[in-house]
Design goal:
The complex is a heterodimer of chains A (114) and B (114). By secondary structure, chain A is mostly beta strands. Chain A has strands at residues 4-5, 10-14, 19-25, 30-38, 45-51, 56-59, 62-67, 72-77, 86-94, 103-104, 108-113. The N and C termini of chain A lie far apart (38 Å). In chain A, 32% of the residues are buried. Helices cover 0% and strands 50% of the residues of chain B. The relative contact order of chain B is 0.32. The chains are: A mainly beta (114), B mainly beta (114). Chain A binds chain B through residues 2, 4, 6, 32, 34, 41-46, 49, 89, 91, 93, 97-107, and chain B through 4, 9, 31, 33, 35, 40-45, 48, 56, 91, 93, 95, 98-108.
Chain lengths: 114, 114
């Protein structure tokens, strides 16, 4: 039973446009959410996070939106750049940022075309 | 070292053989985690170390899997009598404290059981 779902295995966008990656979760105890980016043959790297007490967190070109009632979050990248092409994983945890255990989605492969 | 180092990067083994996967965490990181990513799946939590102790082994899939950590540093994940379903990328991560903030992942070991 997957508790974190990324229903789009892949997404392709043009350079300069907005990329929107979606994530749904089923466990209502999740209260901290993270996005990781992974390039081939490298480990995932932390991108941005959001606590359930907020509905938006922004860091440069990256913004994460959280809709608790819908158990849905999304990562917006604007403007998208070819270097953003990677697999993006959504992850969640209980107990806020102090909980070490993360539950990951299957990932979405983003391709940004020049 | 500058990052989390894992070895080998690739391992092909015959079904039934034992394998050892090694993780060198970032110096000073007291917490260490093992995850695995099977084909088409998200990252799956295996085990958490704080120092040399493993307070959470709940993700180890069977008793063929074991892990240890010595000197509060290097960790070894051992899989005995490997099966084809063990084929996956095994990822190690470390952090300063037992939180999901500041996880740094290694590049992983791709294990193929033939």
């Amino acid at each position: 039973d997957q508790q974190v779902k990324q229903n789009s295995p892949s997404l392709s966008v043009q350079e300069g446009r907005i990329s929107i990656l979606n994530c749904d979760y089923t466990n209502s105890m999740f209260d901290y959410f993270l996005w990781y980016k992974k390039y081939p043959a490298e480990g995932p790297t932390f991108l941005i996070s959001i606590s359930s007490i907020k509905d938006k967190n922004e860091d440069g070109r990256f913004t994460v939106f959280l809709n608790k009632s819908a158990k849905h979050l999304s990562l917006h990248i604007v403007p998208s750049q070819p270097g953003d092409s990677a697999v993006y994983f959504c992850a969640a945890s209980e107990g806020g940022g102090s909980n070490y255990k993360l539950t990951f989605g299957k990932g979405t492969l983003l391709t940004v075309n020049p | 070292g500058a990052g989390v180092s894992q070895s080998p990067s690739n391992k092909v083994t015959e079904k039934g053989k034992d394998v050892e996967l090694r993780c060198d965490p970032i110096s000073g990181h007291t917490a260490l985690y093992w995850y695995r990513q099977s084909l088409g799946q998200g990252l799956e939590f295996l085990i958490y170390f704080q120092g040399n102790s493993a307070p959470d082994k709940s993700g180890l899939p069977s008793d063929r899997f074991s892990a240890e950590r010595t000197g509060g540093s290097v960790s070894t994940l051992t899989i005995q009598r490997t099966q084809q379903e063990d084929s996956a990328v095994y990822l190690c991560a470390s952090s300063f404290s037992s939180s999901n903030y500041g996880y740094t992942f290694g590049s992983g070991t791709r294990l193929t059981v033939v």
